[in-house]
Amino acid sequence: MKRWFLVILFLFLAAILSSCGRSIPLEDLAISLILGVDLDEEDNLIISESSPVFNSEAKKKIETYELEAKTIRDSRRHFDALTPGAVTAGKIQVLLIGKRVLEHEDWFNVLDTIYRNPTFSVNSRIIVVDGPVSDVIHYEPEDKPQLPLFLKEVIDKNIDRSRTVLATPQSLHRQMYEKGMTPLISELKKGQDVEIVGVSLMDQYGKYVDTLGMQETSLLIILKDKQTEELTISIPLPELGDEGGIFNKNELSIDLSRIKSKVKTTYNQDKFHFNYKIHMTASIVEQLFTSGNVKENELEKMIEQELKSRFEGLIKKIQKNKIDPIGLGIYARAYQYEQYKKVEGHWGEALADSNIDVSVDVTIKSTGAIR
Q1: Which of these, 164, 156, 152, 233, lies nearest to 201 by C-alpha position?
Q2: How many CA atoms lie within 13 A of 90 on its CB side?
Q3: Mean pLDDT of all residues belonging to the chain
Q4: N or C end of the chain: smaller count of CB under 10 Å?
Q5: How far is CA 329 from CA 171, 218, 233, 263, 362, in A?
Q6: What is the DSSP letter of 306?
Q7: For the residues 187-199, what does the mean pLDDT come to?
């Protein structure tokens, strides 16, 4: 009896599951892989989407549509009218947002529909475009993979190398509502090619305030203690001087690894104090000056001083803009909760008035195969 019951239950479940959805041929679908959100010169909302074409008779393998709409969801009916396939957004790989959008405080509400749609991928890569989104979404590289895959690969590669940051719908939502930090998103621009330029920094309302270049972004990732692999930094050593000419004789490139970043949080004299201690090992991968000009322990001190100066410059930029892309507010909340709650609503201003000290300890583990 029990066996018959299991057989009947299996057949019932199989019938239910097989009838849950209607099978649609792949060539009858318009599977959006890129979604673009931008503003034109009159501040009209411009939505764009790009989909692969599966019809064997089609000459173009990517179809791209761009139109004016009131909301992202409102654009859906327009796209349905333009494309012969059934539009689906469940496979979007990249969400492009124009920098003009970020110049308005209330822009994040535009993305409301992607959080209400349970099929929207929470792992889509969000990228800020320095310039019109249309320049990127219509980019058709001849010697590269299709644009959605190309953009995703470029972002992921630079994330692995600690040159930019990962922003997804899920992580961006947390950053927007987390009072102890301010949002940051990967930024690219379209010149002759599409290239990553660093990260866009925003204030507590999500409004764009500044851009960090690639090396500044690497330093920020160290302060956030989020580096995953070795990262390469090129620095000049002013103490060695420069002999002039067309070559930079005091330039040094190093691979940094085993990076340990610790921060101590205190509160006194009506201010927060953050004391960073950063330890790392360095491998010299390029050196344009003669090794005999400086001893190894002296070189370590020069590298420490240059990195310390760069960290301090980055911190000054952050404090000047009254933002917190590092997430020091999370440390303040964890270790100085009562004082943090008093300034939670205007944490950026409190951080701008804080003392942030950085000490750097560098150990050279390798000078390369030649001496």
Answers
A1: 164
A2: 5
A3: 85
A4: N
A5: 17, 20, 28, 12, 27
A6: H
A7: 92
How much is the pTM?
A: 0.86
Q: Which domains does the chain have, with CATH numbers?
A: 25-212 (no CATH), 228-371 (3.30.300.210)
Count other C-beta atoms under 10 Å from residue 190's C-beta: 18
Are 153 and 186 in contact, with CB atoms under 8 Å apart? no
Cβ burial, residue 32 (10 Å; 0-12/13-18/19+):
buried
> What stretch of H or E contains 153?
helix 147-160
The Cα 69–Cα 78 span in angstroms is: 8
Identify the pLDDT of residue 7.
Answer: 47
Q: At 273, list the tokens.
A: 């104090």
- pLDDT tens column, 33-82: 899 999 999 999 999 988 876 656 556 677 888 989 999 988 877 766 65
CB 131 within 8 A of CB 46: no
Residue with the larger pLDDT of the pair 33 and 319: 319
